[in-house]
Amino acid sequence: MIKKPEFTRADVDIIRREEMYKRFFRVEKIFLRHKLFEGGWGKEIGRELFVRGEAVAVVLYDPRRDLIGMVEQFRVGALDEPNGPWCYEVVAGMLEEGESPEDVARRELLEEANVTPYAMEYICNYLSSPGGSDEKLHLFCGLCDLDSAGGVFGLPEEGEDIRVHILAAEDVFAELLNGAFNNAAALICLQWLQMNRNRLRTQVAAE
C-alpha cells in the first residue's frame, strides 16, 4: 500500500498573496514557507499560481455499437503543434458555483455534443499541472446512443465552434499513442475506456 505524503496543508504557512492578473484567467503570486523533509521550516519563497479551479471532462461511448464520440475544436495553446491548433478532445467544461461534477458533465454534453447519456461512470480526478496551476479535473465516461450523433455545436456567444466526430473504437485505440490525442484528459479517458471496454459491452449485452 502506498502511504500518504508525510506533510499536509497544515505544514504550509501562507505569508501573503498578490493578484498579478485577472481577466478571463487569473494569476496570483503566493509567498509562503513550508516544512522540510529533513526537519524545520524552509525559507520564504514566491510562487506564481494560475488560478483555474475545477473542471470536468467526459468521453462518450456507445457500447452497443462500439463507437466513441470525440470533439474537435480550435485551441490557442496548440498553435505551434505539428498537426495544427485544432485538437481532438473529450467534452469538457468548468464547474460553476452550486454544481456537482456530474451536473457539469451532463450540461456540457448537451452544449458541446447534443447528447444525453443514459448512464455515467466516474473515472478519476487529477491535477493537470500542480507545479503552477490549481486546476483539478474530474473525468467521466458517458454511456449513450451515438447512432445518429454528430454535427457542429457549442455556444456562439462564448466563441465555441465544436465538431463532434463519431469514431469506431478500434480506430481510436489504434491511434491512441500516435499523437492524434495530444491532451491529458483525452488520453486518460481513452486509456480507461480501453481497459473497461469489454466490461461495458458485456453489461449492455446482458440487459
UniProtKB/TrEMBL annotation:
<dbReference type="InterPro" id="IPR015797">
    <property type="entry name" value="NUDIX_hydrolase-like_dom_sf"/>
</dbReference>
<dbReference type="GO" id="GO:0019144">
    <property type="term" value="F:ADP-sugar diphosphatase activity"/>
</dbReference>
<feature type="binding site">
    <location>
        <position position="108"/>
    </location>
    <ligand>
        <name>Mg(2+)</name>
    </ligand>
</feature>
<comment type="function">
    <text>Acts on ADP-mannose and ADP-glucose as well as ADP-ribose. Prevents glycogen biosynthesis. The reaction catalyzed by this enzyme is a limiting step of the gluconeogenic process.</text>
</comment>
<comment type="similarity">
    <text>Belongs to the Nudix hydrolase family. NudF subfamily.</text>
</comment>
<dbReference type="InterPro" id="IPR020084">
    <property type="entry name" value="NUDIX_hydrolase_CS"/>
</dbReference>
<feature type="short sequence motif" description="Nudix box">
    <location>
        <begin position="93"/>
        <end position="115"/>
    </location>
</feature>
<keyword id="KW-0479">Metal-binding</keyword>
<dbReference type="GO" id="GO:0019693">
    <property type="term" value="P:ribose phosphate metabolic process"/>
</dbReference>
<keyword id="KW-0378">Hydrolase</keyword>
<dbReference type="InterPro" id="IPR000086">
    <property type="entry name" value="NUDIX_hydrolase_dom"/>
</dbReference>
<dbReference type="InterPro" id="IPR004385">
    <property type="entry name" value="NDP_pyrophosphatase"/>
</dbReference>
<dbReference type="GO" id="GO:0005829">
    <property type="term" value="C:cytosol"/>
</dbReference>
<dbReference type="Pfam" id="PF00293">
    <property type="entry name" value="NUDIX"/>
</dbReference>
<feature type="binding site">
    <location>
        <position position="112"/>
    </location>
    <ligand>
        <name>Mg(2+)</name>
    </ligand>
</feature>
<protein>
    <recommendedName>
        <fullName>ADP-ribose pyrophosphatase</fullName>
        <ecNumber>3.6.1.13</ecNumber>
    </recommendedName>
</protein>
<keyword id="KW-0460">Magnesium</keyword>
<feature type="binding site">
    <location>
        <position position="160"/>
    </location>
    <ligand>
        <name>Mg(2+)</name>
    </ligand>
</feature>
<dbReference type="GO" id="GO:0006753">
    <property type="term" value="P:nucleoside phosphate metabolic process"/>
</dbReference>
<feature type="domain" description="Nudix hydrolase">
    <location>
        <begin position="51"/>
        <end position="191"/>
    </location>
</feature>
<feature type="binding site">
    <location>
        <position position="92"/>
    </location>
    <ligand>
        <name>Mg(2+)</name>
    </ligand>
</feature>
<dbReference type="GO" id="GO:0046872">
    <property type="term" value="F:metal ion binding"/>
</dbReference>
<dbReference type="GO" id="GO:0047631">
    <property type="term" value="F:ADP-ribose diphosphatase activity"/>
</dbReference>
